Amino acid sequence: MVFVAITAVGLTEALRRATSEDEIWCGSDAISEAEYAQMERPGFTRFNYSLAGMELDDGAIATVAEHHPGQTIWVEAEPRS
Q1: Half-sphere exposure of 24 (CA within 13 A, CB side)
Q2: Which of 14, 15, 34, 69 is the most buried (most CB within 10 A)?
Q3: Sheet holding 73-75, edge to edge
């Protein structure tokens, strides 16, 4: 399975729920570049841009799907105000 985290809270949840076989992707606002560089988790990828406000058909999801064909992709839903 592939998790896509948008926020820091979502990333924390994805890291908690993911197994060692799962992949995790996140946007730049979910984790800083410095924190990401210190992560020692295989299968963890950080976009260099924010995923806030993204739609399911945005390029980010297409990129994830291209790298993980046929896998289920779970995307964090942002709370609506």
Answers
A1: 25
A2: 14
A3: 44-46, 23-26, 2-5, 73-75
Task: Please state the pTM of the whole predicted model.
Answer: 0.86
List, for residues 33-72, the tens digit of each pLDDT value: 999 999 999 999 999 998 887 765 667 888 888 999 999 9
Q: Which of 26, 1, 5 is nearest to 75 (CA)?
A: 5
How far is residue 20's CA from residue 33's CA, in Å, rounded to a whole number?
22
- Using an 8 Å Cβ cutoff, are 53 and 29 in contact? no
Contacts of 65 (CB under 8 A, 6+ apart): 73
Structure tokens that stand for 18 in this block:
């993911």
Q: Give the Cα separation of 69 and 26 in Å (integer).
A: 18
